Amino acid sequence: MTAHPVIPQFTAHNGFGLPAIGLGTYALNGDAGADAVAGAIEAGYRLVDSAFNYENEGSVGRGVAAADVDRAEIIVTTKLPGRHHASAQARTSIEESRSRLGLDITDLHLIHWPNPSQDEYVQAWAALVDAQQRGVVRQIGVSNFLPEHLERIERETGVRPVVNQIEVHPYFPQEEQLAYHREHGILTEAWSPLGRAKALLDESVIAEIASAHGISAAQTVLAWHVARGVVSIPKASSLAHQTSNLAAAEIVLDDAEVAAITALGRADGRLFGADPRSHEES
């Protein structure tokens, strides 16, 4: 039996831990999606990330059920969509996600976007707090929240998120937000951790570091996330890519290499300009 990589764990303010690398599932749908999820879990993944709006919770749940791994070892994440922020809708959406996933309890449930002009994200957060108290969700967090959003939901409910899933990659390193998360014991998860442009993986500094370690450009970027204490959730459908990504958790970059990659950051580094102050998700 092939040994799985040793995956570092990062810990939130309440002791909840996440592995440094998980599986993103955006666009992993249908039977192929379920097979990809099951294969990833059997290859060593213990964190699987989905969302109501990915329209694949059913496939993700079937993949989790099909994997020959103890369910208790797997952290299944989903997200509440923007159109379900109002209290009653949020409660129903949380229950619907659990049904689609085929789980008695969701391990980690996030608010997908704050949608500040809608101004109902506090209601959505209160619904997640209630779901956790009722025992239908284990841990609760957010996605794409800025410090002002994080401070408001904690001030109004007394509950601090364990996770904030945000855009982080070398073109958008988010140093200030990461520092805020560390100070408050909030785990950072990176969506699109490899960016979405081939240009990033072709950067000479990444190529040089990859060559020095005998690894791929993608593994170099994932190792950069690990070194910064960021949980990355790259999407991969093939077993080869899944295992390659997971192996990056064991690669150690030195401080100079981490700094050199971070220096790729750009003022306009967001992938599609989705600023949480104004972006609205349906």
Automatic annotation (TrEMBL):
Q: Where in the numbering of this chain does the NADP-dependent oxidoreductase domain appear?
A: 21-264
Q: Which UniProt keywords apply?
A: NADP, Oxidoreductase
* Molecular-function annotations in GO: 2,5-didehydrogluconate reductase activity
EC code: 1.1.1.274
Site positions per UniProt: Lowers pKa of active site Tyr: 79
The signal sequence is none
Q: Which InterPro entries match?
A: AKR, Aldo/ket_reductase_CS, NAD(P)_OxRdtase_dom_sf, NADP_OxRdtase_dom
Q: Where does substrate bind?
A: 112
Q: Which Pfam families match?
A: Aldo_ket_red (PF00248)
Catalytic residues?
Answer: 54 (proton donor)
| Coiled-coil intervals, chain numbering | none
Into which family does the record put it? Belongs to the aldo/keto reductase family.
Name the UniProt record assigns to this protein? 2,5-diketo-D-gluconic acid reductase B
In its UniProt entry, the species of origin is given as Microbacterium oxydans
